[in-house]
Design the sequence.
């Protein structure tokens, strides 16, 4: 705790001035406003975290992500979906924590507001009392000064009437002088009494001003410390969220390390294989030479699927003019 600085630096030479007190009050109001702004920031950040968490949760549970994968990569994807779900839940929990911190900030503001109110009521009352007593003192001073001037005029009138023969006029002047002297004495006493009262009020105001300065400075120290700690806690929560998320993603990385490309390929082959013998080659088949359709050595054999019978035998010899006819069908153009 630093030494008190408020009580030694917020005075004014003008007894009616409250500029120092007003400056402190303005600063405290600004501090309370700053706390309110941070409180609103926490609430909005909580809304952001909650919205992000719910969107991420919906994405994790509703959106397909490699659903047809198999074996080791499938297991890694399942871990990935689980950890994304967990990260989403962490963001939703963070939102709740931020709202709790915002609530604490609001309670702190209200507590300081009530504490300040008590001091402000005392200071407002002493300020009014000081202003009222100062006015009474100044009025008493004016009255005293006027009575003094009246007495001086009465004395001058008596001096000027020393050579007057009329005794009644002199008597009146002496009576007026005596009356004015009495009025001066009375106003002087009243003026001195008001000055004394004002001085007591001034001392009381100074004492209350010092107390207020000390109370307000203690409040400001408390506010700065609370605000600083709240901000520190906030960034710690954000850092912890990052650490927690990274730990969850590390589980995904570990599951990915367990993935085996060879095992996944072998798994697919074992689950979906269709056979190990490829189709035989399609051989050339001469329409007129079925004997040439023999299967080459080393090739797959099968039943003779020749589609044509033996070639027709001509009824005529090559020297016969009708040699070109086969069953009345001419091979020559006419």
Sequence:
């Amino acid at each position: 705790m630093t030494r008190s600085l408020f009580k030694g630096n917020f005075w004014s030479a003008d007894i009616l001035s409250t500029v120092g007190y007003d400056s402190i009050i303005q600063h405290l109001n600004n501090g309370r406003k700053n706390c309110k702004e941070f409180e609103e920031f926490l609430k909005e950040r909580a809304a952001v975290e909650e919205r992000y968490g719910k969107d991420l949760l919906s994405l994790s549970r509703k959106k397909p992500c490699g659903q047809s994968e198999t074996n080791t990569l499938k297991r890694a994807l399942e871990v990935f979906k689980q950890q994304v779900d967990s990260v989403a839940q962490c963001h939703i929990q963070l939102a709740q924590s931020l709202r709790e911190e915002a609530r604490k900030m609001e309670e702190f503001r209200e507590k300081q507001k009530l504490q300040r109110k008590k001091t402000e009521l005392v200071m407002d009352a002493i300020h009014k009392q000081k202003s009222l007593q100062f006015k009474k003192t100044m009025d008493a001073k004016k009255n005293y000064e006027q009575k003094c001037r009246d007495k001086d005029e009465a004395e001058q009138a008596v001096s000027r009437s020393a050579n007057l023969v009329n005794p009644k006029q002199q008597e009146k002047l002496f009576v007026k002088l005596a009356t004015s002297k009495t009025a001066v004495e009375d106003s002087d006493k009243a003026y001195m009494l008001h000055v004394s009262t004002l001085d007591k009020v001034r001392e009381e105001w100074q004492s209350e001003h010092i107390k207020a300065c000390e109370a307000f400075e203690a409040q400001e120290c408390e506010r700065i410390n609370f605000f600083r700690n709240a901000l520190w806690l906030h960034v710690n929560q954000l850092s912890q969220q990052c650490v927690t998320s990274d730990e969850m993603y590390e589980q995904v990385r570990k599951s990915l390390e367990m993935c085996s490309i060879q095992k996944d390929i072998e798994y697919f082959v074992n689950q979906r294989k269709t056979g190990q013998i490829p189709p035989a080659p399609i051989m050339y088949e001469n329409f007129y030479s079925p004997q040439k359709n023999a299967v080459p050595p080393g090739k797959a054999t099968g039943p003779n699927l020749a589609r044509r019978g033996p070639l027709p035998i001509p009824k005529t010899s090559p020297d016969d003019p009708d040699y070109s006819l086969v069953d009345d069908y001419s091979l020559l153009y006419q």
